[in-house]
Design brief:
By secondary structure, this protein is an alpha+beta fold. The protein has 5 helices and 20 strands. The protein has one domain. The two termini are 45 Å apart.
Length: 364
């Protein structure tokens, strides 16, 4: 009877040891070679600021016959020669009304990238007890937006458009001109879809808590729209002469950011897996991907000048002068060609994307 009790005790010890060892066996082929993971968490990304500025279109001479005042023809007052011309005129006629050109915004990186949510899934194939190959698809809510510096520059141009032209017109032709400037801002939207393939190594092969490291490569795909901003500046005033139509001109400038739809990325990271049973567990990891992410700046400019009869032509008594006209034979200074899709900044560099996630995996 004593022998039987001892055998039973020994059997209980062996059984208990076998149960404790089951997580270690879960790493091997006995519990399946494939894993399916679903996960979610937090994503952040940087925006590269490298790149080179383009060339803004030069103004062209504008005849003011018979006034004999040299002037310039511009496509917009908001940038380049247009901003320089109006500030030159106001230096004489309205020194307190200075215009803030939008050049620093459109001639440099205007991008920022928001942080947001991450969701995704992975499929892994075990290779022995230590190694694995894995394919991952991550959806990250990190849209491209205008940086705060760019937004401040856009707002400065919008507000000073009003003060600049009100100051100019109140110095001479109109005591109460109608000058407005509106902003239509469209922030970026959509998701970034990153598809990667990595090779991983478990740093331990026994126990419930298995740390690992991974490295590989993939492609980041952009969905949705890039940000844009449209400033519409308008001025109008009536000449105190019966029957003469009012001066009425509109300056529309659109700023658009664009980025590559697909960019190659390199991936590295690590984490740990907690083995709940031979068939499932949870894991947490941090992965960084480097590549792509640079953005370009494009502009569209559309000047509009109302014509009428009888006509009025106003030429400022400055050199160079600014011309405001309703005549079909004398153009206004705001009569340059329409600009469409002019690239004013070409971005370069790589974005660093960081995903911090947790999830559940199933082995089969």
């Amino acid at each position: 009877m004593t022998v039987s009790y001892r055998c039973a005790a020994a059997l209980a010890v062996v059984t208990s040891f076998a149960l404790m060892a089951s997580p270690a066996r879960a790493q091997g082929a006995a519990s399946g070679k494939w894993e399916l993971d679903v996960h979610g968490g937090f994503a952040s990304a940087t925006s590269p600021h490298g790149g080179s500025a383009g060339t803004l279109p030069a103004s062209t001479p504008l005849s003011t016959f018979p006034f004999s005042q040299p002037s310039r023809r511009v496509s917009s007052w908001f940038f380049g020669d247009g901003a320089a011309l109006i500030n030159s005129v106001n230096t004489i006629l309205a020194p307190a009304a200075r215009f803030t050109a939008i050049d620093p915004v459109i001639m440099s990186s205007a991008a920022s990238r928001d942080s947001g949510a991450n969701v995704g899934f992975r499929v892994a194939r075990r290779i022995g007890s230590r190694y694995f190959a894995e394919a991952t698809v991550d959806f990250t809510r990190t849209p491209l937006t205008f940086s705060q510096k760019a937004l401040d520059g856009i707002e400065a141009s919008r507000t000073t458009f009003v003060t600049t032209f009100r100051g100019l017109f109140m110095s001479g032709p109109s005591p109460n001109p109608d000058v407005t400037a509106t902003l239509d801002l469209n922030e970026g939207s959509g998701w970034e879809v990153t598809t990667t393939g990595v090779f991983g190594v478990d740093l331990l092969t026994r126990g419930r808590l298995i740390p690992y490291v991974v490295g590989g490569a993939g492609v980041a795909h952009i969905t949705g729209s890039s940000p844009s901003a449209t400033i519409t500046g308008h001025y109008g005033f009536t000449i105190p002469v019966p029957g003469v139509p009012p001066v009425n001109e509109t300056d529309t400038l659109a700023i658009r950011m664009t980025q590559d739809s697909n960019s190659p990325v390199g991936v590295f990271g690590g984490g740990f897996r907690y083995v709940a049973s031979p068939r499932w567990g949870v894991r947490f990891d941090v992965r960084a991907s480097v590549g792509g992410g640079a953005s370009d700046v494009l502009i569209d400019a559309r000047p509009s000048v109302a014509k009428g009869s009888p006509t009025v032509v106003l030429v400022t008594p400055t050199i160079p002068s600014a011309v405001f006209s309703t005549s079909t034979t004398q153009d206004s200074s705001l009569s340059g060609p329409t600009i469409s899709g002019l690239k004013t900044f070409s971005g370069s560099g790589s974005s660093l994307r960081t995903n911090i996630v947790g999830g559940v995996y199933f082995r089969f």
